[in-house]
Specification:
The chain is mainly β. It is built from 4 helices and 17 strands.
Length: 452
């Protein structure tokens, strides 16, 4: 047990240090104005390419933070790093434009503690906010005006977890997640008539606190194949937060500089909560394990996920996050529901009778598709989304320094296309293409040598 605690402390220390320099890629979606921003996938590049079918996924090589029970299967010390680059075409009934965003996204490490136990820690975005929108209108008293909405920031998640197999066919696990970060949102009203000063409301929400999730998997061998049923639960949690709200008038010059004038309202460091919604996932995976290797020759998986997005409340100062001063009837009028399916194939292992050779036959080919009702209902129109994925896992060699030593790596390359929203009823449709790249490094630690 002491060794386990020391290892967990090491994992947390390796990640807390880089977190001070960690810069997640920004968001560019107008839909991120709602709730905590756009909620991000809970996984690294390997599972991102597989569309997030993680509840029933098991692997001896890859870290699966969305299913902590899978840590019990880890065979080697594993380091995961990944990033992405996205181009987004945004259009309504009258206009369209392209936006881009990308950069380093996540990192994680995992260590097998025993043959039936493993631990993991990782850092990744929980949500992203990024938008810059203009609307024009006319008021009977003030004349023509322009409204500008700008937002940036997001919340980052650090997880530390453990998985174990108490009996042969059952695995259990849990994650402790530390959420931290801030959202900055500004709304400006600029009047065409110069006798009226511009007005701005600037809000900032900072959050930091703990939440947890747990998972279980039942593994059933059926001849040459393995069937895994998995389930995960993220418990809804109130995360401590502080809120700043400043409204003021200002004068904008032609050069872009601003001169603040009168302050109308100032709320500084007001303590309260944000709510991390409950999430439940169930999945099923069928795979053919490769003989004497910690990979599957092929696998297919499906998953159904429900997120209690109706509880994505604004900042609250009540003793409970849902006890606000006014009834909350925000845009998340439904719970989010997402279904996904994936498949993976390594030709040289899937068709051993054909004796396929060459690098192209050792590559893992992957594909996935997902469909989601996001829970957003705008202008009486539900906002839905879909995503299709293709990818490859390229073995990029390995080496051994000492007898029994194992070192190797896998390069993950993926391409994704998808869509958010619709052009009907005055909404915006986003069509995006995304390239994802990640690397998994595997190393065998704690090797006991018979000869020195």
């Amino acid at each position: 047990m002491k060794r386990t605690l020391r290892t967990l402390s090491l994992l947390a220390g390796l990640l807390l240090g880089p977190s001070l320099l960690f810069g997640q890629s920004g968001g560019v979606s107008p839909y991120s104005i709602y709730g905590h921003g756009l909620l991000q996938p809970n996984g690294f590049t390997y599972h991102s390419i597989l569309g997030g079918t993680q509840a029933a996924a098991t692997s001896g090589l890859y870290v699966n933070p969305a299913q902590p029970a899978s840590y019990a299967d880890l065979r080697y010390t594993t380091l995961d790093l990944g990033g992405s680059y996205m181009g987004v075409h945004q259009a309504n009934e009258n206009a369209s434009l392209w936006n881009t965003t990308g950069g380093f996204k996540n990192m994680g490490i995992a260590v097998p503690l025993k043959k039936w136990m493993g631990a993991s820690a990782g850092l990744m975005p929980y949500s992203l906010t990024g938008y810059d929108m203009l609307t024009k209108g006319t008021d009977a008293n003030f004349g023509d005006f322009t409204q500008q909405f700008k937002g940036s920031g997001g919340y980052t998640k650090l997880h530390v977890g453990m998985g174990l197999k108490p009996v042969e066919f059952l695995a259990l696990g849990f994650n402790a997640n530390y959420l931290f970060g801030s959202l900055d949102q500004k709304t400006s009203m600029i009047f065409s008539d110069n006798q009226f000063n511009s007005v701005r409301v600037a809000q900032r929400t900072l959050a930091s606190g703990w939440c947890w999730d747990a998972g279980a998997q039942l593994r059933i061998p059926l001849g040459a194949v393995k069937v895994v049923a998995g389930a995960t639960l993220r418990n809804g949690s109130a995360v401590s937060s502080t809120f700043n709200d400043l409204s003021y008038t200002y004068i904008a010059s032609g050069s872009g500089s601003e001169t603040p004038l009168d302050t109308g309202l100032a709320v500084l460091n007001q303590e309260g909560y944000i709510y991390v919604p409950t999430q439940v996932s169930v999945g099923l995976e069928i795979s053919k394990p490769a003989k004497d290797l910690p990979v599957s020759a092929w696998s297919i998986g499906v998953q159904y996920q429900v997120t209690e997005t109706q509880m994505l409340l604004p900042f609250s100062t009540g003793t409970l996050p849902w006890l606000t001063s006014e009834p909350w009837s925000g845009p998340y009028l439904e719970n989010s529901q997402r279904i996904s399916a994936s498949a993976s194939l390594i030709p040289s292992l899937a068709f051993p009778d054909k004796r396929l050779k060459g690098f192209k036959n050792d590559i893992a080919y992957r594909a996935a598709f997902s469909y989601e009702n996001t829970g957003l209902v705008l202008n009486q129109t539900p906002v839905k989304a879909w995503q299709a994925n293709l990818g490859m896992g390229l073995p990029i060699g390995g080496r051994a320094i000492l007898p029994g030593d194992v070192k190797f790596a896998t390069l993950h390359i993926g391409a994704q296309v998808g869509s958010w929203g619709t052009k009907t009823n005055g909404l915006i449709q986003e069509f995006y293409t995304q390239a994802t790249v990640g690397v998994t490094l595997n190393d065998q630690w704690f090797v006991k040598f018979k000869y020195r």
